[in-house]
Each structure stands twice: as structure tokens, then as C-alpha cells.
Amino acid sequence: MEHKNTQFVVICLLVVLRAEERTDDGGGWSLNSDFRLQDEGPCNIDVFDSSSLSYQQFIERYAYSRPVILRGLTDNTKFRLMCSKSSLLQDYGDRRVRLSTANTYSYRKVDIPFQEYVDIFLRPQSTDTLGSDTLYFFGDNNFTEWQSLFQHYESPPYVLPLTSGAYSFGIAGPGTGVPFHWHGPGYSEVIYGRKRWFLYPPEKEPHFHPNRTTLSWVTETYPHLPEDEAPLECTIRPGEVLYFPDRWWHATLNLDTSVFISTFLG
Q1: Count of structural domains within the chain
Q2: Helix (H) or strand (E) run with residue 263 in it
Q3: How far apart, in Å, are the Cα atoms of 196 and each of 20, 80, 150, 233, 261?
Q4: Helix, strand, coil tally for the chain in percent (to 5)
């Protein structure tokens, strides 16, 4: 009887721990490191609740001209639960993921098991780390292998005419991010953590070293920018979606261990 009671207590404890992880804002990912960046910076990008900006207004005011942040656009509660640390490791720990160097200087790719990435590579980044030495899990997702996860994601409904969405999913530690680059339009949503964004219009190329990280740019260059070279910027949290127009320069900085997904419109 005593042995059965002990088993019952252990099972109850595991259930409680699992529930606490799922209700925690970090989904268990924040337990990976106590380190996080505190400075969210200013927010000079327009922010709307989804009920305050119609699709027609989005097309007329933002789709082709400037970024915007939308709150409560979709309900991804189920997807968020599926992206908790314990759930992803249970379902995808043995799957191989492709890591890329987080810069515009080199194109190194490394394939490792997802569990190994979480255990070894998912850690805070220092300011002196070069982009070519930083392996980042974002994009390069095998859609077939991750289909069982992606099918539960509700993408932003405000799509551009004659486009369709393609997903890129990522998980990264505090201090990581992608340096300035540009491509077609799309959305970025944070599932867990916080992500700081910096954007410039197509005609205003920012000054940055192609083999330096966003963290080093924020530390060394950003504080000394003249007013007329300041970026549009904001930090987004779970439940917020940032839209970036076609060919806009942008860089990102993960302030916490973050889980995120982008929808590229092509």
C-alpha cells in the first residue's frame, strides 16, 4: 500500500509540474537560463487591437508602406501549448533540425537532433561572438516532419492579394537574433518570450558589419546613431504579430529564450 501511495504522489507531482510549465509565460523555456535582456527599447511602430484595424484599412495604410503590430489577431492557444518545452521535446526531440549561421557573411548549415540543440546550443549569446560562429534554428524547417505542429497554427488572416504564406519556425536563446537583411513581406509572431525588432525602409540601408550580430550592433552602434538614422523599432510579446512590408530592412534580437514563427507572403 505504501508503494502505491508513493507512486500516486509522484504521478500527481509530475502532473502539477507539467501544468505549471504550461501555464507559465515561458512555457518551460525560461527555465533553460535565468539570463534575459531587460531593455525593450522604445516602440515607435503603430500598434492596434485587431478590432481597431479592418482589413481594408490594413491594405490602404500599411500593407505596402510601413510596419504595423496587431494584437489579438488570432487565437493560437492550442499551438502555444504544443510549443512548450516538454511538448516539443517529447514529440520532436529525436528529429533532426538544420541550424544556420545568423549573419549575412557565411552560409554554414549544421544538422543535429532537436534535443541536442536544446541541450547544447540554446544558450545566451555574448556581444563578442561573430555571426559566422553563431548557429541559429530558424527557417530550413522540414515542413513534412513538422506538419503535425504547423497544422495547428492559425496564421494572420490579413494576407496580401495574390500571395500565400510559408512558415518558418524557430527557437533561440537570449541575445541571439538575425542581423539586418531584407526579403519579401510577412508576419512575425512570438509564441514564448520577447523579440525586439529594428526596421528601416528599403531606401535607407542601415550601417552594420555583415559578420557582427544584432546584439553587438545594439551595444556598439545603436546608442550613437544620429536622430535621422534611428530605426523604427518595437518589442513584441506573445499575442502580438508584427507585419513588415516588402524589401524593408530588419534585424531582430531575442530578449529571452524565445519560440517564434514567421509567415512569409510570396
Answers
A1: 1
A2: strand 258-265
A3: 27, 20, 24, 7, 14
A4: 30, 25, 45
10 Å CB burial of residue 33 (0-12, 13-18, 19+) is middle
Judge whether 15 lies within some domain: no
User: Does residue 139 lie in a domain region?
Assistant: yes
155-174 per-position pLDDT tens digit: 999 999 999 999 999 999 99
Q: 54 CB contacts (<8 Å, ≥6 apart)?
A: none
Residue 61: phi and psi, rounded to 5, are: -100, -30
**Domain span including residue 90:** 42-265
Q: Say if CB 190 and CB 260 are below 8 A apart.
A: yes
Handedness of CA 44, 70, 78, 149 (dihedral sign): negative
- Whether 24 maps to a domain, the answer reads no
Give the model confidence (pLDDT) of 33-54 as tens digits. 556 788 899 999 999 998 999 9
Whether the model pTM is above 0.85: yes
